[in-house]
Write a structure and sequence with these properties.
This protein has about 190 residues and is α/β, with parallel strands linked by helices. The chain has 7 helices and 5 strands. The structure holds flavin mononucleotide. One of its GO terms (molecular function) is oxidoreductase activity.
Length: about 190
């Protein structure tokens, strides 16, 4: 059975990115995939301290909840990341998690070891929400960060749903088209 990992990056449960992510999860499940949802805010995640410990073996020397997630990342067929825009970037919780993926960078560029289990790359998709209404660069920081994260993990960036103009929890429910698009994106994720 194909496996999709859904990384939920907002501290706000049942918020806008959560609602869109849950739609994408339903879509992925409808396509027959098994979905593992990782709620970053519930995990104890220390920030990377740049000790370069991972340069030796490609493993992190900090033993907290990230250790249990590494294995999910490398054997997933699809990854969906959902985050709100916080000061033009991803949430601090999600950024701390992404920075802790430095061992994969070390594996790839220092140790020249494969990052993923098995052959080929996974397919990745981004969901991001923001309060502001427009502005070309509103999601630029989030997109760049997630693309860099995917690149290091050999995850193909297959697309995104960017939802602006939603501030309060649940406002995204008024955007029926985006809810449907999120479901469809989850359903199609593994077919790219
Ligand atoms: C700390 C913080 C920083 C934020 N920064 C921005 C921002 O830079 N631009 C923006 O449009 N919205 C910003 N927002 C609003 C959220 O992106 C918006 O409410 C979003 O819908 C929240 O998604 P969620 O419900 O999934 O948490 C910020 C909210 C918080 C709490």
């Amino acid at each position: 059975m194909k496996k999709v990992v859904a990384i939920f990056g907002s501290p706000r449960v049942n918020g806008n990115s959560d609602i869109l992510l849950n739609q994408a999860i339903k879509g992925a499940e409808a396509s027959g995939a098994k979905v593992e949802k990782i709620v970053i805010r519930d995990l104890q995640i220390a920030p990377c301290n740049a000790c370069d410990g991972c340069f030796e073996k490609g493993t992190c020397v900090i033993y907290d909840d990230v250790q249990q997630i590494y294995s999910h990342l490398v054997d997933a067929d699809g990854i969906i990341v959902a985050s709100p825009v916080y000061f033009m970037s991803v949430s601090a919780q999600l950024k701390a998690f992404i920075d802790r993926c430095q061992p994969f960078w070390a594996k790839k560029y220092i140790l020249h070891l494969p990052v993923r289990k098995g052959m080929g790359s996974a397919n990745g998709f981004l969901i991001a929400t923001a309060a502001r209404n427009a502005g070309d660069d509103l999601f630029a920081g989030v997109i760049k960060t997630i693309k860099a994260f995917f690149h290091v993990l050999d995850i193909k960036y297959t697309g995104e749903i960017l939802c602006c103009g939603v501030e309060e929890k649940g406002m995204v429910n008024m955007k029926r088209d985006l809810l449907q698009r999120a479901f469809d994106a989850g359903k199609q994720l593994l077919t790219w």
